[in-house]
Design goal:
CATH topology of the largest domain: Rossmann fold
Strand order of the largest sheet: 3-2-4-5-7-6-12
CATH class of the largest domain: Alpha Beta
Number of helices: 12
Largest sheet: 7 strands, mixed
Distance between the termini: 41 Å
Number of strands: 14
CATH architecture of the largest domain: 3-Layer(aba) Sandwich
CATH superfamily of the largest domain: Thiamin diphosphate (ThDP)-binding fold, Pyr/PP domains
Helix content: 25-40%
């Protein structure tokens, strides 16, 4: 299978969706000739025209509102917000309009829109350009949230999101945009709501998503040298999440560590830990542990940011604790 960078996989997913369906349009700041802040839409305006690849003002609230309106009139808009931090400005359209439309209209009408946005640190972008706010969105009934960690899933989840009849937030880690990986030809779609077993194991399950997948795989390699076989499960879809796959893995390993870059407090890991402590209680041989960022804004200075972010060493240490 050919190798592509994650960013190239995203561009291909957008192009393939626009080729297959003339109702798919793109909205965002500088996504036209400039190709977006990270280059995900480079070349698409020249290929599909400015009517379908539209530059917008620097106004995230207006951008999200326009996407909701376009979706309600029969289009399938894919909106891009430069950094997830700025999703704060789009929350009214997302939370009060897009998420509620199917319920408000008695199930007769949904909002088939996608909002793409990058999260995460590692680039010394500071506390206003590095946040992981996906837990906010997972808490809203009516929204779906996905977070790919590989080029194949960046393509597959985006295609599934665009085809979905309801609003989907696609969270991309900007630190993974340059990462290479295999992409089938033709590429496969990734179902929303289904986790992926990234590494089989027997001693403990590491559940993760986004950039934490690669830290978790590195931690599993480190632990393997000590004779510990950790299973790594890539969640991929955060809302809905694959409860059955997590429970199945827990039934094999009987220990669970949940890792994500977002702040640990009140995060995605907290919800999964609570649920597994309920339905998976009989399978647990040790307390569920979480590995996440501390409850502070993201530091700007690179050494401080590196100390703030979770990594493979912290995940491995958590696995050792749950085995002790």
């Amino acid at each position: 299978m050919p190798e592509l960078r994650t960013l190239q996989a995203i561009t291909r997913a957008l192009a393939d969706a626009m080729e297959a369906d003339p109702s798919v349009i793109l909205l965002g700041e500088d996504i036209g000739q400039a190709g977006g802040p990270f280059g995900a839409t480079r070349g698409l305006q020249e290929r599909f025209g400015p009517e379908r690849v539209r530059d917008t003002p620097i106004a995230e609230a207006a951008l999200a509102g326009a996407a909701v309106g376009a979706a309600l009139t029969g289009l399938r808009p894919v909106a891009e917000i430069m950094f997830m931090d700025f999703i704060t400005l789009a929350m009214d359209a997302l939370v009060n309009q897009a998420a509620k439309a199917r319920f408000m209209f008695g199930g007769q009408r949904g909002v088939p829109m996608v909002l793409r946005t990058p999260h995460g640190g590692g680039l010394s972008a500071g506390p206003q350009h590095s946040q992981c706010l996906e837990a906010w969105l997972c808490h809203v009934p009516g929204l779906k949230v996905v977070c790919p960690a590989t080029p194949a899933d960046a393509y597959g989840l985006l295609r599934s999101a665009i085809a979905d009849p309801d609003p989907v937030i696609v969270v991309e880690h900007k630190g993974l945009y340059a990462m290479k990986g295999e992409l089938a030809d033709p590429p496969e779609w990734t179902p929303i709501g289904r986790a992926r077993l990234a590494r089989p194991g027997r001693d403990a399950t590491i559940l993760c998503y986004g950039a934490a997948l690669h830290w978790s795989l590195a931690a599993a390699e480190e632990l393997a040298r000590e004779g510990v076989e950790a299973e790594v499960l890539d969640l991929r879809s955060l809302q809905p999440w694959d409860e059955a796959a997590v429970l199945e893995s827990l039934s094999r390993t009987h220990r669970l560590v949940i890792a994500h870059e977002a702040v640990e407090a009140f995060g995605v890991g907290a919800e999964i830990a609570a649920r597994m402590a309920d339905i998976g209680f009989d399978e647990l041989d040790a307390p569920i542990l979480r590995v996440g960022a501390p409850f502070t804004p993201v530091p700007f200075a690179h050494p401080l940011e590196a100390a703030w972010r979770p990594d493979a060493a912290r995940i491995a240490a958590a696995v050792r604790r749950t085995l002790a």
